C-alpha cells in the first residue's frame, strides 16, 4: 500500500503542536509515538504540559531532559526493570518542572469526564493521601446519594488535552486508525480536542467496513493528522508487532544519568545523521 | 527437603491468598506472580491470576481502566504494592523523601496505590530491602494511607508486609503490624535493629512455615514454566526453569 496523500510526516505533525500545549500520551505498552517525541525535540518544543495516561517511561523522560516540558501530571515515570527515569528524577528534585502527582484511575477519570462533557467524575479512594492534599483542583464532597450524610468522595475535574499523541498499528486512506485493545488511546482520542497519530502500517481497505477491525478503530471525526512511521514506537514495543529494544533502553538510562551523556544521546538518536527518523 | 528463599516466599504468599478468587499482580513482581499462579493452579478453576505483562495470564482486554473498575466493584480480592517508605501504620510512600514537591530523592510516583489500597481487601506489601531507610516511623509523603476514619468507604487496605527478614501481618483494628514469622537466618534482634517503626511481637515468634512438599513440586514442575513467560530470567535463575 502506498502512503495516503493526506498523510503528513512526523516532523510536520510536530510543527502543529505549539509551545505550551497540553499533550496526552499513553503508557509504555499502549502505543507510544516515540517518532513524534523525537520530532518534538527536534523542533525544540518548549513549555509543553504532559498528561501521562496514566504513567510514562522514556517518552516523558526524554522530553523533560530535552527541555520541552514545563509541567507533568502523572501517576509515575519510571524505566521499569531498567531503573529510575534519570531526567524526570533530576528535574523534579531541582524544581525545574511542575509536578502534579496523581494515581492511575484518577487520570482515567479526568479523561472520562472530558469524554462525556461532564464537569467532573467521582472516584473512591485517594482520601487522606498527600496526593489529594496537594491537588487543589480535586474536590471532596459528601456523597449526595447517601442517606444520612457523610461518605466523602473525591471529584476529579474534566481535563481536555489539546492533543492526544500516540502510535497505532494501522491507518487507512480514509483517515481511520486502528489501536486494537489499546482502549486508553480510544479514551484519550475521545477526550482530547485533537488527535495526532503515527501509524505503523497502512491498511489496505476501510477499517470501518471490516467488522473484525471496527471495535478497535478510531474514526476520522477524532483524528486530525496521521503520519506513516514504521517502527514509530521504537525503542518501546508495539503490541502484536515488535518487542521493546531492551539493549537500547539500557543505553538510554545510562546516558540520561548525566546531562553531558544525554546531550550526546540526543545528538546521535534525535538530531544526528544516524537518527532513527 | 531443600528449598530456596524464593520458593519459601512463594508458598508463604500463597497461604495469604487462600480463598481469593481474583488476584492481580502488578509490574516487577515475579515472586507475587508465582504465588498467584500457584493459587490458581491449586484452585481447580476457582481462582484467577492476572499478571501484568503476561499475554496468557491476563483475563482482561478493555485497556488500562479495567483493573481499577473491577477493583472499585469489589471484584479484585488481592493485590501487591511496594513502597519507597512504609511506616508502622501501613502508610506507603511512592513519591519521594524529604519535602514536597522538591524532594531529596524522587521516586517514580504513586501508580494505582491511592485507589487500590482502598478497594482491594488483601493488599500485600512486598518490600525486600529491610532497613530503617525504608521502614520508617512516619512516611514523608502519603501515597496511600494505611487506614481511614470510619466514615470513609474503605473495603480495602494492608493485609501483610513481606521483607527480606520476616513477615508482618497488619492489624486493621490497631493500625499496627505484628511480627508473624522470621525468614531463615533472620533474628528478632536483627528485625528490631532494622525497623524504624514500633510493631507488636508475640513471645513465641518462630520461623515462617516451610513450603508444603506438594506445592514445592508444583512450583518446580508447572509454575516455573508459567511465570517464565513474563519473567524468564527469574524462572531460570531462581526456580531452576530450563526452558
Tell me about this structure:
- The complex is a heterodimer of chains A (277) and B (243).
- Chain A contains 10 helices and 12 strands.
- The longest helix of chain A is centred in the middle third of the chain and has 13 residues.
- Chain A folds into 2 domains: 207 residues, 3-Layer(aba) Sandwich (Glutaconate Coenzyme A-transferase), CATH 3.40.1080.10; 37 residues, no CATH class.
- The relative contact order of chain A is 0.18.
- In chain A, the strands form 2 sheets. In chain A, strands 1, 2, 3, 4, 8, 9, 10, 11 and 12 form a 9-stranded mixed sheet that branches. Chain A has a 3-stranded antiparallel sheet with strand order 5-7-6, covered by helices on one side.
- In chain A, helix 9 packs across helix 10.
- The radius of gyration of chain A is 19 Å and the shape is globular.
- Chain A has 277 residues and is α/β, with parallel strands linked by helices.
- Chain B is an alpha/beta fold.
- Chain B contains 7 helices and 12 strands.
- In chain B, the strands form 4 sheets. Chain B has a 5-stranded mixed sheet with strand order 3-8-10-11-12, sandwiched between helices. Chain B has a 3-stranded mixed sheet with strand order 5-4-9, with no helix packed on it. A two-stranded parallel ribbon of chain B has the order 1-2.
- In chain B, helix 2 links the parallel strand 1 and strand 2.
- In chain B, helix 1 packs across helix 2 and helix 2 crosses helix 6.
- At the A-B interface, helix 4, strand 4, helix 5, helix 6 and helix 7 of A face helix 3, strand 7 and helix 4 of B.
In short:
The complex is a heterodimer of chains A (about 280) and B (about 240). With about 280 residues, chain A is an alpha/beta fold.
Amino acid at each position: 500500500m502506498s502512503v495516503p496523500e493526506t498523510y503528513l510526516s512526523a516532523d510536520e505533525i510536530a510543527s502543529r503542536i505549539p509551545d505550551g500545549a497540553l499533550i496526552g500520551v499513553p503508557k509504555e505498552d499502549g502505543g507510544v509515538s516515540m517518532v513524534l517525541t523525537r520530532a518534538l525535540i527536534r523542533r525544540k518544543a518548549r513549555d509543553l504540559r504532559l498528561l501521562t495516561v496514566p504513567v510514562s517511561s522514556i517518552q516523558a523522560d526524554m522530553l523533560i531532559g530535552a527541555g520541552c516540558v514545563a509541567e507533568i501530571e502523572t501517576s509515575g515515570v519510571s524505566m521499569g526493570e531498567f531503573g529510575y527515569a534519570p531526567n524526570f528524577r533530576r528535574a523534579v528534585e531541582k524544581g525545574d518542572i511542575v509536578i502534579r502527582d496523581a494515581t492511575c484511575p484518577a487520570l482515567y477519570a479526568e479523561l472520562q469526564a472530558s469524554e462525556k462533557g461532564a464537569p467532573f467524575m467521582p472516584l473512591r479512594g485517594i482520601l487522606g493521601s498527600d496526593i489529594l492534599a496537594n491537588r487543589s483542583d480535586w474536590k471532596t464532597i459528601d456523597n449526595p446519594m447517601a442517606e444520612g450524610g457523610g461518605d466523602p468522595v473525591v471529584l476529579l475535574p474534566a481535563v481536555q488535552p489539546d492533543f492526544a499523541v500516540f502510535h497505532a498499528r494501522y491507518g487507512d486512506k480514509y483517515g481511520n486508525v486502528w489501536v486494537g485493545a489499546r482502549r486508553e488511546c480510544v479514551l484519550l482520542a475521545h477526550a482530547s480536542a485533537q488527535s495526532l497519530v503515527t501509524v505503523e502500517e497502512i491498511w489496505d481497505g476501510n477499517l470501518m467496513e471490516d467488522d473484525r477491525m471496527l471495535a478497535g478503530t478510531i474514526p476520522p471525526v477524532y483524528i486530525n493528522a496521521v503520519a506513516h512511521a514504521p517502527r514509530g514506537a521504537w525503542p518501546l514495543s508495539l503490541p502484536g508487532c515488535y518487542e521493546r529494544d531492551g539493549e537500547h533502553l539500557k543505553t538510554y538510562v545510562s546516558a540520561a544519568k548525566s546531562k553531558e551523556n544525554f546531550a550526546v544521546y540526543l545528538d546521535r538518536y534525535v538530531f544526528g545523521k544516524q537518527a532513527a527518523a | 527437603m531443600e528449598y530456596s528463599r524464593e520458593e519459601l516466599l512463594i508458598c508463604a504468599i500463597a497461604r495469604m491468598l487462600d480463598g481469593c478468587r481474583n488476584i492481580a499482580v502488578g509490574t516487577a513482581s515475579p515472586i507475587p506472580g508465582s504465588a498467584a499462579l500457584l493459587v490458581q493452579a491449586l484452585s481447580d478453576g476457582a481462582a484467577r491470576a492476572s499478571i501484568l505483562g503476561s499475554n496468557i495470564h491476563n483475563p482482561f482486554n478493555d485497556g488500562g481502566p479495567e483493573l481499577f473498575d473491577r477493583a472499585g466493584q469489589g471484584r479484585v480480592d488481592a493485590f501487591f504494592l511496594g513502597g519507597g517508605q512504609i511506616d508502622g501504620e501501613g502508610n506507603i510512600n511512592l513519591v519521594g523523601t524529604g519535602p514536597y514537591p522538591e524532594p531529596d530523592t524522587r521516586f517514580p510516583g504513586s501508580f494505582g496505590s491511592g485507589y487500590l489500597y482502598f478497594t482491594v481487601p488483601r493488599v500485600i506489601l512486598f518490600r525486600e530491602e529491610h532497613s530503617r531507610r525504608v521502614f520508617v516511623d512516619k512516611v514523608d509523603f502519603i501515597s496511600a494511607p494505611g487506614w481511614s476514619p470510619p466514615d470513609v468507604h474503605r473495603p480495602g487496605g494492608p493485609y501483610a508486609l513481606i521483607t527480606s527478614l520476616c513477615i508482618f501481618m497488619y492489624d486493621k483494628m490497631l493500625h499496627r503490624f505484628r511480627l508473624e514469622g522470621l525468614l531463615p537466618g533472620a533474628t528478632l534482634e536483627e528485625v528490631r535493629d532494622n525497623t524504624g517503626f514500633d510493631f507488636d511481637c508475640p513471645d513465641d515468634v518462630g520461623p515462617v512455615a516451610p513450603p508444603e512438599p506438594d506445592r514445592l513440586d508444583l512450583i518446580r514442575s508447572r509454575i516455573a514454566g508459567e511465570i517464565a513467560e513474563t519473567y524468564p530470567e527469574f524462572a531460570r535463575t531462581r526456580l531452576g526453569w530450563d526452558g
